[in-house]
Every structure is written in C-alpha cells, then in structure tokens.
Amino acid sequence: MKKGIFFQVIVITIFLIFWNSLHFGKHLHIRIFEQKKVQIYQKLSPIPIIIFSYELDSLYSIKTKLNSFLWVDSLQIEEQTEISKRLIAEYQLSESSEILSRYTLPNVMKIYLRGEFFHKSVREEVWRIIKENNEAAEINYDNEFWEKIQIEADNVQPNINLINFAYLIANGVMIVFLIFFVIFMRIHFETKRNQFWKIFQISGGKKNSRAKMFFLNSFVLSIIPTGLNFGIYFAAIYFDYLKIQIDDKLFIIELGTLMFAYLLTSLFLIRRFK
C-alpha cells in the first residue's frame, strides 16, 4: 500500500505543478500585454497640458491639488512677468518692451503627466479640478492625439480578456479532470487491497479500520502534494528564481479540489468500508 500511496503522491504532485504552470503562464501573458499598454500610454508623457489664466492664485491652487496624484510627473508655472522677460530676451525685443508692458499676458501652467497612468477617468478628473478652481482658464491639449492613444490601448484589451477567459475555462477543465483522475486512482488502489481487508476482518480486525485508513491516506494525499507544490513555489520566490507571483489562495483551491475528490471517492467505496 505504501508504494501505491507514494505513486499517487508523485502523480498528483506532477499534475499540480502542471496546473501551477497554467497560473504562471496566464500572469506572464497578461504582463506582456499590460506592458504593451503602458508603452502605448507613455507616448502621452512628452505632451503637457497647458493652462492659460490671468488668475495666478488659482494656478497655484491647481498645482497644490494635482501634486499629490501619481499620474502627475511635474508641474511648472510661468508668471506674466517671467513670460514678458523671456519673450524680450529670446526675440531681442528690448526696443518693444514698453509696448509689451501695456498688454497683460496670461500666466501659463504646464502639467507633465506619467502617460501610463493617464487613462480616461484620470483625464476627466484633471479637467474637473482645473475648472473647479478657475472656470475661465483656457486648456490647451492635443485631444486628438490623446483619443488616438486611447483607441490604440483599448485595442490591446481584447487580448487580455481572451487570456482571462481561456484561463477560466482551462482551470475548469483541470479541476474536472483532476477530480475524475483522483477518483479513478483511489478506487483502483483500494480495489487492489480488497483481499487484504477481507483477511484482516476474518482475523478479527475492526470493521471501521479500513474507513479510518482511507481517510488518513486521503488526508496525506491531499496535504503532501499541495505542500510540496507550495514549498517549491515559495523556495523559487525566496531565492529569486521566479519573478512571477501568484495568489496563495490558488493553493487552497488545489487542496480543496483534492479533498472534494476524495470525499466523492468515499461515497463510491462506502459499501466496502462496512
């Protein structure tokens, strides 16, 4: 019987390793497509949102509110006087400085974004904050390019949805197959022990000994393969051999599947336990 238990432990452990490779494969492919989306959104980073406003205080208020957001890379405010001096210096307008002083130039604020975070909902939030603080502010942004980037990123999403759907179906198939395979193995090995248990009972052995042994072996066959898989996974993460981490709850699902399979097996074999 020990050989039979050992064989089942090895087979189930290999199966669970294969099942875990499905989890890693899903995370790896999702990461590839998510990285592709990030690269698409990063095209927005060099393009700032430019705000023109005559109300300098409102620009500083907007700056204070936006500074705390993850998707803001940097904020720059250029005041009217600074703009005038820069224009005079850049275009050698020293003779026209008196003319420029007669006109009131707007203050300018540039918002540089981390493109990978600047999604649809974020854009709406930026516009809302700006308008709440200064309704008269003029916003200059390449909305056409932004829409193009959104469409390009949205085209990647169906690939991610397909992977998630295929992963869900594959997990369902794995669970059903594992249940049937485990039931078959347990019935096979328990049937091979029928003669032993007949002799055991004739010799005065307790009737419920077989049932106790079955549930004890079932516990061992559930805990050891799952524990080995978790141990291998933990060691690979700890020693930095594995870069992808999966949810620990998946190991609980694997353990639960095995225990459920053995519970079903006991229903098939209940007559033999009497």
Keywords:
single chain; 274 residues; alpha+beta; Alpha-Beta Plaits; 2 domains; 4-stranded antiparallel β-sheet; 10 helices
Order of helices and strands: HEHEHHEHEHHHHH
Strand content: 5-15%
Task: Determine the N-to-C terminus distance.
Answer: 20 Å
Number of H/I helices = 10
**Uncertain residue ranges:** none
- Helix-and-strand structural type: alpha+beta
**Tally of DSSP β-strands:** 4
Could you characterize the architecture of this molecule?
By secondary structure, this protein is α+β, with helices and mostly antiparallel strands. 69% of the residues lie in helices and 8% in strands. It has 10 helices and 4 strands, in the order αβαβααβαβααααα. It has helices at 2-41, 56-66, 80-90, 97-101, 120-133, 143-154, 157-192, 194-202, 209-238, 249-269; strands at residues 49-53, 72-78, 107-113, 138-140. The protein folds into 2 domains: 2-36 and 157-273, no CATH class; 48-141, Alpha-Beta Plaits (2-Layer Sandwich).
